[in-house]
Design a protein that fits this description.
By secondary structure, this protein is an all-alpha fold. The protein is 81% helix and 0% strand. It has seven helices and no strands. The protein is elongated and about 85 Å long.
Amino acid sequence: TEGYGGQKFTTQIKNGFKNVATMVTGADIWNGMIQGAKGAVNAVMDVNAAVIDLRKVSDASDTQINKYFDKAAFNAKDLGSSVSDMIQSTAEFSKLGYNLNESEELSRVATLYKNVGDNMDNTQASQSIVSTMRAFDIPAEKAISIVDKFNETGKIICQHHTVMYGEVNDYISQSLGISKTEERLVS
């Protein structure tokens, strides 16, 4: 039962599997490092593209945008988002005519709303925040109050009915449009 090198056949099989496992583990580590590097490169490219977009649509100086970048990184970490998503969201609000500080706050609020809302993406959260702000003339610095109100309303409705926050958002947005239209017709 002794084979090559005076080892038992079963020992040779065990050693063979250990060698294969070591090679596979080494390959997995190497592959993971390559994928990680690719991911890092993609993340940098996404951030760069978002910053370029923000510079195109914002009237902020390069110095202001560079200072904003640190805030965007902090907000992304704090809200569980990516830096590029935070910057892109800020650019979207800048396109709507908000200044850099307002856009940063609205981006933060919309990201928070997306996180607490069900089945909602950044675009839906942003649209909801902006339409509510416009319907009730709420300034950007008080936009967080919208999320608070949506959250309160959602809790009350969800206690009595089985609905998702996204549905609450739809109901409230529809009501806002109707009530604001009626208000404008009366005045």
